């Protein structure tokens, strides 16, 4: 049976708006917030309530498709090639508990392990990012009336004399919730090298942002607001929806570790880069700043 992507997309947009109501009417507090793996890996009643609502509505409408959600995921669960909804009820939970208005619901749909629909909604700013494979991606917000992404022409990364590249980029990189071990060290050293002055061996990028939502970070690259987003440690539900939005905006996703041009949706390591001439060279420059290897 063929899958009607447009119909699923429209259904996910309506779910995103309903979830947005729940998210913005919640009154989370830092003291009532629970944690999962450690004290920095937060979860709230709202995350669970939204996932319950979303999964029930999806299962009722599409009983034949698989469902994977952040709050019901169990170690050992794996993605299969079957059509699968991949859902993060609140991406940016740390922001949500602090009432920092950068959080979203991220609704993705993948077939054959390839993301084909992405719906990402930040209910605090009323920004809706959507994409369907081969049909473009869009931003609808108080400032944008379903504008096609990227929001501006994709500039070449280098000028005619070969200047520019990574040094001209605005980077997004997250600290993640693991604050010890190899990957934490790799991140800290890599951030240092990216930002450091050239006379200290750094790339001296324009700056690094850490805003706390993988899905919205990828959408920022898709829009053209940032050039590169680099992350180790997040999950398929953090990236599936954004993947479609970015690819449809002309961007690419590769592995965060040097030399790996193919990223997997459940591979836990990602580098999202905007489109534009010279993007491969910028990826190589970035990999040259990765100090060590993410596990
Ligand atoms: C987290 C956010 C964060 C990223 C973490 C994710 P959550 O998702 O996307 O930016 O650095 O790896 O786990 O827990 O807020 O859904």
TrEMBL record:
Q: Which cofactor does it need?
A: Mg(2+)
User: Which reactions is this enzyme annotated as catalysing?
Assistant: a myo-inositol phosphate + H2O = myo-inositol + phosphate
Keyword set for this entry?
Hydrolase, Magnesium, Metal-binding
Please identify the protein, giving its name as recorded. Answer: Inositol-1-monophosphatase
Task: Give the Gene Ontology MF terms in alphabetical order.
Answer: inositol monophosphate 1-phosphatase activity; metal ion binding
The answer to whether keyword Plastid applies is no
Please tell me where Mg(2+) binds in this chain: 70, 88, 90-91, 238
Q: Please state the pathway this protein functions in, per its UniProt record.
A: Polyol metabolism; myo-inositol biosynthesis; myo-inositol from D-glucose 6-phosphate: step 2/2
The record's PANTHER family line, in alphabetical order, gives: INOSITOL MONOPHOSPHATASE (PTHR20854), INOSITOL-1-MONOPHOSPHATASE-RELATED (PTHR20854:SF4)
């Amino acid at each position: 049976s063929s899958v009607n992507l447009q119909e699923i997309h429209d259904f996910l947009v309506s779910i995103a708006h309903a979830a947005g109501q729940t998210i913005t009417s919640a009154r989370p507090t830092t003291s009532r917030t629970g944690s999962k793996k450690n004290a920095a890996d937060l979860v709230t009643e709202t995350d669970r309530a939204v996932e319950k609502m979303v999964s029930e509505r999806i299962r009722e409408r599409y009983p034949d498709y698989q469902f994977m959600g952040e709050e019901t995921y169990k170690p050992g669960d794996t993605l299969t090639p079957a059509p699968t909804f991949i859902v993060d009820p609140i991406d940016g939970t740390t922001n949500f508990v602090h009432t920092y208005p950068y959080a979203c619901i991220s609704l993705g749909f993948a077939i054959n392990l390839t993301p084909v629909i992405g719906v990402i909604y930040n209910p605090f700013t009323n920004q809706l990012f959507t994409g369907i494979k081969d049909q473009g991606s869009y931003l609808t917000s108080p400032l944008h009336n379903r504008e096609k992404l990227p929001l501006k022409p994709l500039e070449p990364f280098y000028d005619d004399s070969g200047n520019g590249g990574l040094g001209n980029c605005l980077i997004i990189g997250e600290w993640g919730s693991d604050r010890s071990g190899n990957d934490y060290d790799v991140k800290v050293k890599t951030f240092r090298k990216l930002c450091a002055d050239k006379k200290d061996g750094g790339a001296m990028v324009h700056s690094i942002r850490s805003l706390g939502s993988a899905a919205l970070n990828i959408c920022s690259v898709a829009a053209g607001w940032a050039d590169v987003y680099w992350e180790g440690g997040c999950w398929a539900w953090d990236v599936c929806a954004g993947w479609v939005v970015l690819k449809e905006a002309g961007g690419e996703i590769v592995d965060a570790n040097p030399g790996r041009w193919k990223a997997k949706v459940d591979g836990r390591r990602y580098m999202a880069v905007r489109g534009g001439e010279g993007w491969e060279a910028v990826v190589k420059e970035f990999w040259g700043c990765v100090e060590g290897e993410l596990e």
